[in-house]
From TrEMBL:
Domain named TonB-dependent receptor plug: residues: 190-292
Domain AMIN: 66-160
Recorded family membership: Belongs to the TonB-dependent receptor family.
Keyword DNA damage appears in the UniProt entry: no
Native source species: Cyanobacterium stanieri LEGE 03274
Protein's name according to its UniProt entry: TonB-dependent receptor
Length: 849
């Protein structure tokens, strides 16, 4: 687009020169010249050129002197001519240059027919004036990072242009204002959000994928509050602030009413532009996100007509290079032209076996939660958008994700030592997988009366298959070996309307609704017990089918209103209300244990509130306080799968959970330091834990903690930072007001510390060392998951160097080859006590074209 602009503007000036001979000469006051604002398209150039033709003189004027002096906002460029007739410039930016064109002029300086000065100041590297071959004069002002701006300063004798370098800095400041949509469903400055919010940008995502492509591993290394990775495809045992997390991809909820706990395994990082993590519940997003929200925003088209990126990488675990070998291929392209924009990204990857630091193979499905070893992953993202006019646009997107495990190994039922072991010989027709298809149509209108509208309709088709479970000693499940699969189809819509109630964004109201209908089920394949036993758990031969959890249909309707009020320039107050209506329909069904259950309809409703404010002590520091409520409907299908014979769904209604969370915090943002510190306390009358038989226990529960993070740019070459998370909690098992039972480790993660140091070693070479420490915890009490977990420390190294037309990247995970057990592995213990991966190496090369 920029090259086209230069070519066409040059042709315009040739036309102007030819038109000059027939034009009527007239004097023009340069103060009445067209605005010298930034030129964004060729139409503006033509408009200014037409003005120039109509207002120029017929004689040639000699530019006799060019001088530079200090100005109020940068510097003044003083241009003198021999006849003192007003000079009429055409000014527009081009890449990092400010172009100043004159027709009917000629350089005739005492020093010759050109003018050059370099190293003008820290923002301008060069000013050059030359005679054009086709007549006229061009003055080019080159900015160090971007084009300067200019304005005509009134003068009786010469043309004086104020070259605005302060304006350059102002634009840079505007570009660094971080806007988030997660907190209030409308764009706002993150510094005015009275909540704990972490934003992970595209650059950070790309950097972390040089060691891992799993979001469950990436997020804990960057975000306080999130428990360390389970190193499986499941987030069971990886809470956010001790509670469930909600995940959105472009506004589409990734949860299922039969919770499969795999919400972060629905998209590849190569398709993600940014991730916004809202810690704590939100009353404006509805069911499920009692611990917080992870809002994933996918990539989109750039500003150019076409741009493409190719990325190829190889990976391996160095304790067994051959059997752990894997690779990843990515290709993306997109562009914008004539109101249309498009983007497409495809990625395909394969991982080999996982091996611990001692070189032993890790079972591919450690706790039956879904493994990441011996996995093939495909992700396709496509977007097409159209700008109907300057206020309206529409976009359709499709995202398809498929994870498929294909392994000859399984968990050894009788390991030789303390850690889990893998053995060869698995024969399982349908191995664990996840498949996610999302169709999304979005429409935006920024001029709907005095409001702006953002809306979407979506369809999601989802399925995930688990590894088989040996339930031969469980009558409630038919004493069977079975493999289940969660299936879900969801249709929904979201409508957000942002209405200013006072001018200058002093008071805004965001209001709207969410609705979805979801049909889900959990069918199960039943295998032959004798064949399974005689093969020592290696061969699975299907003999029947059933439902582990009954088919359900769920309707959710949420109506909300959220205000943003700025009574003072230094004070922002947010508050809102949401009314939630949930209906769950369950048909008659038979449990795997053979019990007949009469179906019925369950209705839930809740009114949720939130209010918070942030006060800016100065330009750099803000303090905030917030109260927010969250709401979560019970996993109805799971709760009903062991129902007694002859029971009715309406008699067994599981109760929903409402969570109240209080938070105070401080946030600082200086030129080279960004830091935050927050304390939170959350309470619910109906928390969820499990007894020793994995039965659901509901009783009052409280969770509290402290979170902090800091990032410090020491200079242009060095940066350091890290995060801190401490969480604790207890429950009241007797409902007598005494919270004397510790919450388990699947809910309360141990202390987590992360740290990093980055160095721009040379202009083309950057390195990062990062650490993650997970502490020990020993909760007291009886039931599932009340054993101790031990601490561990890991380190990663990331390096990138510009090479040729692209960039070579190297990542080393578990740099010191530490031997440790992930927390979830320690929680399960026994034969499921799987060690973590040993030192892993990844090398890749990416280039744009």
């Amino acid at each position: 687009m920029k090259n086209q602009l230069l070519t066409n503007s040059s042709l315009l000036f040739v036309t102007l020169l030819l038109s000059t001979f027939s034009a009527n000469a007239q004097n023009v006051n340069p103060e009445k010249a067209p605005s010298l604002a930034r030129v964004d398209d060729l139409a503006e150039v033509k408009t200014k050129a037409q003005w120039l033709v109509q207002n120029q003189t017929s004689s040639v004027s000699n530019i006799t002197n060019i001088t530079i002096s200090e100005g109020e906002s940068g510097l003044n460029l003083i241009i003198e001519n021999d006849d003192n007739t007003p000079l009429q410039p055409l000014i527009f930016p081009l890449e990092n240059n400010l172009i100043i064109e004159f027709t009917n002029t000629e350089l005739n300086l005492s020093s010759g027919d050109s003018f050059v000065t370099t190293d003008v100041n820290e923002d301008i590297s060069r000013i050059e004036a030359v005679n054009n071959d086709n007549g006229g004069v061009t003055i080019t002002v080159t900015g160090v990072e971007q084009a300067p701006t200019a304005q005509i300063i009134p003068s009786q004798e010469n043309l004086v242009l104020g070259i605005d370098t302060d304006g350059m800095m102002a634009r840079e400041d505007e570009q660094t204002i971080e806007l988030v949509v997660t907190a209030n469903r409308a764009q706002e400055d993150i510094n005015e959000v009275p909540r704990s919010v972490t934003v992970i940008n595209r650059e950070q995502i790309e950097e972390q994928t040089r060691i891992s492509r799993d979001l469950g591993e990436i997020l804990p290394k960057l975000v306080p509050g999130i428990a360390p990775s389970t190193q499986t495809s499941s987030i069971f045992g990886q809470p956010l602030r001790g509670r469930n997390v909600g995940v959105l991809i472009d506004g589409v909820p990734q949860s299922t009413n039969r919770n499969a706990q795999r919400d972060l395994r629905n998209i590849d990082p190569s398709s993600i532009e940014r991730i916004e993590v809202l810690r704590g519940p939100s009353a404006i997003y509805g069911d499920g996100a009692t611990g917080g929200l992870i809002n994933i925003i996918t990539r989109g088209a750039g500003d150019t007509p076409f741009q493409a990126t190719t990325n190829v990488s190889l990976n391996s675990i160095l304790t067994d290079v051959g059997d752990s070998f894997g690779y990843n291929l990515e290709q993306s392209f997109g562009g914008t032209s004539r109101g249309w924009n498009y983007f497409f990204n495809a990625s395909y990857g394969a991982t080999g076996g996982f091996f611990d630091s001692e070189g032993d193979r890790i079972p591919p499905d450690p706790q039956g939660q879904g493994g990441l070893a011996d996995l093939q992953t495909l992700n396709l993202l496509g977007k097409v958008g159209y700008d109907i006019n300057e206020n309206q646009n529409i976009e359709f997107s499709i995202n398809y994700f498929d994870d498929q495990q294909n392994s000859d190994f399984t968990l050894d039922p009788t390991p030789s030592g303390e850690k889990a072991e893998a053995r060869r010989g698995l024969q399982l027709p349908n191995q664990p997988n996840t498949e996610n298809l999302v169709l999304n149509l979005r429409y935006q209108n920024s001029a709907l009366g005095n409001s702006s509208l953002s809306s979407q309709i979506y369809y999601r088709d989802y399925s995930t298959r688990f590894f088989p479970f040996d339930l031969r000693t469980s009558p409630a499940f038919g004493n069977a070996v079975l493999q289940s699969e969660v299936r879900s189809q969801k249709f929904g819509t979201r409508v957000d309307i942002d209405t200013p109630l006072l001018p200058e964004d002093k008071l805004n109201l965001t209001w709207g609704l969410d609705y979805f209908n979801e049909d889900s089920s959990q069918p199960a394949d039943i295998f032959d017990n004798d064949i399974f036993a005689n093969s020592d758990g290696l061969i699975f031969q299907k003999i029947g089918e059933g439902f582990l959890s009954p088919p359900t249909s769920q309707n959710n309707l949420g109506l909300f209103a959220q205000t943003r009020w700025k009574p003072l320039e230094s004070l922002t107050i947010n508050g809102g209300i949401r009314q939630e209506f949930v209906g769950v329909n369950v048909g008659d069904f038979t449990t795997l244990g053979g019990n007949q259950v009469q179906g019925g309809k369950l209705d839930y409703s809740a009114t949720l509130f939130n209010i918070g404010g942030i006060y800016s002590l100065n330009d750099n520091v803000g303090i905030y306080a917030n109260f927010a409520q969250g709401f979560s409907v019970a996993d109805v299908a799971r709760a009903l799968r062991t129902s007694p014979d002859g029971s009715r769904v309406t008699d067994l209604k599981p109760e929903a959970q409402k969570v109240d969370t209080y938070e105070i915090g401080v946030r600082g943002n200086w030129d080279n330091v960004q830091a935050s510190l927050a304390y939170f306390y959350s309470f619910s009358d109906l928390g969820t834990t499990f007894d020793s038989n994995f039965g659901i226990v509901r009783d009052p529960q409280r969770i509290y903690g402290i979170e902090g993070d800091i990032n410090y740019d020491i200079d242009d070459n060095w940066a350091v930072g890290g995060t801190f998370t401490w969480t604790d909690g207890s429950r009241d098992p007797n409902n007598d007001g005494n919270f004397d039972a510790d919450l388990p480790n699947t809910i309360i993660a141990p202390v987590k510390l992360t740290a990093y140091v980055e160095n721009q070693t040379t202009p083309n070479w950057r390195n990062r060392l990062q650490l993650l420490y997970s502490g020990g915890r020993d909760p007291q009490g009886t039931g599932f998951d009340l054993g101790p977990v031990d601490s561990y420390l890991t380190a990663d190294f990331i390096s990138s160097v510009k090479l040729g037309d692209g960039e070579l990247n190297i990542g080393i995970e578990n740099l010191f080859n530490s031997f440790y057990y992930p927390n979830i592995s320690q929680i399960y213990g026994g034969r499921s006590r799987s060690a973590a991966k040993g030192i892993s190496f990844k090398i890749g090369y990416s280039f744009d074209w």
